[in-house]
Structure formats: structure tokens, C-alpha cells
Amino acid sequence: MAYREYVEKGYMPSREMMKKFLIEQIDFKRNFEVVDLYNAVDKVSAEDVKAKVILPKLPVSKMDGIGVCFADFKDGIPDTENWQEGKEYIFANTGCVVPEPYDTVILIEDVRFIDGKLKILAKPETKGQLIDPPGSLIGKDEVLVNKYEKITAPQVGLLASGGIKEVKVIARPKIAFIPTGDELVSWQSEDYPVDKNIESNSMMLSAFCKQYQADLTIFPIIPDDKEKIKEALTKASEIADIILINAGSSKGTKDFTLDLLETEGEVLVYELGCRPGKHSSFSKFNQKPVLGIAGPPNGAELAMRFYLKAIMQAYYHQKLSSLETVNVTVDFDFTAPKNADFCLQVHIFKQDDKYHAQIINPKGVTRATLLQKYNGFIYQLKGTSLNVGDEVTAELIVERKEIENQN
Ligand SMILES: Nc1nc2c(c(=O)[nH]1)N[C@H]1C(S)=C(S)[C@@H](COP(=O)(O)OP(=O)(O)OC[C@H]3O[C@@H](n4cnc5c(N)ncnc54)[C@H](O)[C@@H]3O)O[C@H]1N2
Ligand code: MOO
Fold it and tell me: Which of 90, 104, 188, 235 has the most crowded Cβ, counting Cβ within 10 A?
């Protein structure tokens, strides 16, 4: 073990700048796959999907009624006492074909049968009234889903109507996660020695990957050994589109991750100008993007919430989403450090028709308390202060209804 002098280097982006930087820097190698309609929802279409059939193929009725020939109404409502079904009129049901020569539908509500004899109460206004002509529901070659559009549940039905059986979509990216640290033991272990910590970030990531639609390979815990880390990175670069390497990113005697990425790859961001999650980094190794994530679960969580999410949205050609915001009155004083913005984790609640925010120090409470309490962020620029009573914009990580009437 040796003392490592801390040298601040490189670009230290804020949270938003880091998202932007990642998206600009990553040259995504996307894969595609063909899925059937059972598996199409929420996938992103790789191309414009055009209808293979038109609907309807023949004129159909828009409503339940009777089909008539408009010409019979040129002088007003004719005497229909002797009209016969199948001759002067037919029954026309919603969505069913109205065959020639019938060209107009009269609503069944505007028709009576008195002693079996037809009586029409309202003259059709126009020829073709209440009829959907061919192609009026799905047009010839109509685009049903656009390229890079996320397919919704109604669109899956639309695709089926358009004669589509399968769609080419962007395949889930492959993410490799490399947990590092001599002090770690797997969360699957039944008991663990007193000097060990439980490796849990892989499971948090596994859950985030489910939400973000990525396939995850979790590597075994890699000891703090440059050769072993290099081996793992090499293997990860062969199987994954995006590599996440965890911990060993700070100033400790065993924090080798960035030294290694610097000599064996290229480090573009060593650390952020934003806390928590300051020790998030971005590198390239064997042409693969490597997102470095801080070891402590809270820093790791924020990196997954912000940076991994941005990467995933860009991978799927989706716009970057932003959190819903709410104006809050702060119930605390706080000054952000001079060298980094601070993404404050706060408890937002409603009192006397106003939203308030209480600060939660992630390093001062158990993780369970933090996760129970914090429901939003206040992003505070470096060196700036907040004082009790200030009104600011906060971001919500829960739905707005969750912050109504709770303390
Ligand atoms: N002198 C300084 N010390 C530290 C600073 C600093 O600026 N100056 N920053 C602190 C901050 S903030 C963070 S965040 C951490 C970053 O640490 P590392 O990313 O280098 O992580 P380690 O030191 O290896 O481990 C820290 C902590 O996290 C636990 N850990 C690691 N991996 C996992 C995992 N996969 N699952 C669960 N927990 C994990 C590890 O056991 C340690 O407890 O540095 C601070 N120090
Ligand atoms: O980077 Mo650390 O995650 O600020 O807590």
C-alpha cells in the first residue's frame, strides 16, 4: 500500500454537462432484432413500419343502421311502405361491409318498423353518409410506427390491424458490471467476515437495468489488483456495449481504477463537479464506453439514476427525460462546497397548501432512512447558499400525488 497524492485533473462537469458529454462522446454500436407483436410494446422501432394492408378493403358501415341508395332520396324521403330487405335496403352493422349498390347508411335510431313496414324518419344528408370508404382506417403504405418511436400498447394493436406480424427493433444493449474491492463479499454469501462489506450495487443496477431495458452481466468481485482489473475490463469489452466499473475511483491507497484506465485506455472525465456521485467517471477502453461509478451505494445510485439513464435514453434514440419539478420553501440552511455543485436529497411535503423541503444528509442517516425519506432533489450550484424560507425549484423522484398531505 502506498500514499497516493491527490491531483485534481481534467474536465469536472456538472450533472447536466456530464449527461451531455456522455451522449456526445459515446459512439453507440446498436444491435437490432426482430420481435413478434407479443414482445413489441416499449421497444423502439428501428425503421418506419408501413401498413401491409389497407383497412377496410371494401366500404363498411360506421354505425348500426340500414344501407340504402342515396339516389332514392333525391326528392326527399320516399314512400318506403313496400321496401324490402335485400332489395331497396339492407341492414348495415358497424364495421361490416355495405355491398353495392348501397352507398349510404341511415342510423337505426332514425328508422321504425311499423307492422313490419319500414318507415324512415330522417333523410340522409349526403351520399356516403356513415360509410367508411376503403383505406379510410388504415391507408395504403401508411406509416404505423415511425423510426425510433417507442411502440405503445395501442400501436401494437394498430400494427396487427396493418397486417404486421413482426417488427425490427433496437435490441437491448449489453451492459457489463465490474464490482471491485478487496473488502467486498457477494450479497449471496450466507455470512460474511467482520472486515468485509456486502457487494450490493450489482443488485441495484440489475433492477435499474430492468427499468432501462438493458441486459446485464455481473462480473465476480475483482480484487484491488491492476492486472485483475485489466483482465476484467478486457473481457467486459469483448461482450458488452457499455461497461460499468464500480469503486476504486477515489483517493484511497487501493483506488486503481482510473490509473489503469488512464494507462490502458483513455479517461475523459476523472470526476464530476457535482456531489454526491462526484466519483463518477467516463473512459474508453478497447473502444468501449466505461462509466465509472462510486462505490458507496448512494453515489452509485445517483450515477445510475442520472448518467446510466441518459446513456440508455440516447442508446434508444429517446429524448433525455427530466424529472417533474415543484416549487418548494426550504426549511434549512445550506451552502454548497466551492468546488462542486450539490444535488441535495430532500424530503418534500405539503403543509398549509405549500410544498416544503427538509434536507437529509445521506452520510448522516442509515440508507433505509434515506430511501424512506428522500423523494426529491434540489440542485445547488457550487459556492451558493440556501436559507430557511427561500423558495426554489425541486425535482421529484416520485409522482406528485405522493407528496400531497404527508409529513
Ligand atoms: N480523501 C477523500 N476520501 C474520499 C473522498 C474524497 O473526496 N477525498 N470522496 C468520498 C466519496 S464522496 C466517495 S463517493 C468515495 C468514492 O469511493 P470509491 O468509488 O473509490 O469506492 P471505494 O473507496 O472502493 O469504496 C467506498 C465504499 O463503497 C463500498 N462499495 C464499493 N463497491 C461496492 C459495491 N459494489 N456494493 C456495495 N458497496 C460497495 C466499499 O465497500 C466502501 O465502503 O470516496 C470517499 N472518500
Ligand atoms: O461521490 Mo460521493 O458519491 O459524493 O458520495
Answer: 104
Q: If you take atom 43 of ligand 1, which residue's CA is the nearest one?
A: 296
- CATH 3.30.230.80 is the classification of domain 15-31+172-315: no
- The beta strands (E) that lie in 201-340 are given as 215-218, 242-246, 266-269, 274-275, 281-285, 288-293, 325-330, 334-335
What's CA 315's distance to the chain center, in Å?
11
255 CA distance to ligand 1 middle (Å): 9
Say how far apart CA 50 and CA 293 lie, in whole Å: 42
User: What is the third-level CATH fold of 60-132?
Assistant: Molybdopterin biosynthesis moeA protein; domain 3 (2.170.190)
End-to-end CA distance of the chain: 48
The 3-state DSSP composition of the chain as helix, strand, coil percent (nearest 5) reads 25, 30, 45
CB of 15 shorter than 6 A to ligand 2: no
pLDDT digit string (tens) for 168-208? Answer: 999 999 999 999 999 999 999 998 889 999 999 999 999 99
Residue in 249, 275, 281, 367 to alter for ligand 2 test, most ligand atoms within 8 A of Cβ? 275
CA of 275 to the centre of ligand 2 (A): 6
Question: Can you identify the CATH homologous superfamily of domain 33-55+138-170?
Answer: Molybdopterin biosynthesis moea protein, domain 2 (3.90.105.10)
* Strand pairing class (281-285; 288-293): antiparallel
Cα of 391 vs its chain's centroid, Å: 30
pLDDT band at 254 (very low <50, low <70, confident <90, very high): confident
Kindly state if the Cβ of 278 falls inside 6 Å of ligand 2: yes
Residue percentage of the chain with pLDDT more than 90? 90
Number of Cβ within 10 Å of residue 27's Cβ equals 9
Please compute the mean of the pLDDT values over residues 20-46 and round it to a whole number: 96
**What's the CATH code, domain 325-403?**
2.40.340.10
Question: Which residue ranges make up each domain of the chain?
Answer: 15-31+172-315, 33-55+138-170, 60-132, 325-403
Q: Which atom of ligand 2 is nearest to the CA of 276?
A: 4
Q: Which of 246, 270, 298, 302 to probe ligand 2 with, by most ligand atoms within 8 A of CB?
A: 298
Closest-lying ligand to the alpha carbon of 299?
2
- Nearest ligand (C-alpha, residue 301): 2
Say what the ipTM of the complex is: 0.96
